[in-house]
Design goal:
By secondary structure, the protein is mostly helical. It contains 7 helices and no strands. It has a domain of about 70 residues: lambda repressor-like DNA-binding domains (434 Repressor (Amino-terminal Domain), Orthogonal Bundle). The N terminus is likely disordered.
Length: about 140
C-alpha cells in the first residue's frame, strides 16, 4: 500500500507516521505483544475486542503492533475490556519511582519561586528583623 505524503508536522515524518525514540518503540512493541497475548489467552477475537472497547479491528491490530499513534484512551478502553485497567493506573507508581524518591529525599529539585513569593518572603524576614520595606520596591512586586 503506497504511503501518502503529508506536510511535515512536529512529531511526524513526511508521510504522517509518528516518530518516536527507539526505546519507546521497543516498549510499545512489547506492550502490543503482551496485549495480543492477553487477548489470545482469553480467546477473544480482534473484532470482539474492538467491539467491546468501542474501536475498530484495525486499531486493535495497530495497538498490538505497538503503533505509537494509538490514543491512550483507546489503550485504556482495551485494558478495561481485558480486565487489566488497574495496570494502567500503576504505570507511574510514585511509590516505586526510585529516582523521584531519591530526589525528593534530597529536596532536589526545589520548586521555583515567583518574584512575588520572593518579595513576600523578604518582607517577612525584614518584618521579623525590624527592618522596614525597601524604598525601591512596590508592595505589589513592581520594582522602580
Amino acid at each position: 500500500m503506497p504511503r501518502r505524503q503529508l506536510h511535515h508536522a512536529q512529531g511526524h515524518d513526511l508521510y504522517g507516521y509518528i516518530i518516536s525514540s527507539p526505546k519507546s518503540n521497543t516498549a510499545l512493541e512489547r506492550l502490543g505483544h503482551d496485549l495480543r497475548s492477553a487477548r489470545l489467552s482469553r480467546r477473544i477475537a480482534v473484532a470482539d475486542l474492538a467491539a467491546r472497547a468501542g474501536t475498530s479491528p484495525s486499531t486493535i491490530a495497530r495497538l498490538e503492533r505497538g503503533d505509537p499513534g494509538v490514543a491512550i484512551g483507546t489503550l485504556a478502553d482495551v485494558l478495561v475490556s481485558l480486565g487489566l485497567v488497574e495496570k494502567l493506573a500503576d504505570l507511574v507508581d510514585i511509590r516505586k519511582d526510585d529516582l523521584g524518591l531519591a530526589l525528593t529525599s534530597e529536596r532536589l529539585p526545589q520548586r521555583g519561586r515567583s518574584y512575588a513569593a520572593t518579595l513576600r518572603k523578604q518582607e517577612r524576614q525584614d518584618h521579623e528583623s525590624g527592618k522596614d520595606e525597601p524604598d525601591d520596591v512596590d508592595p505589589n512586586g513592581v520594582a522602580f
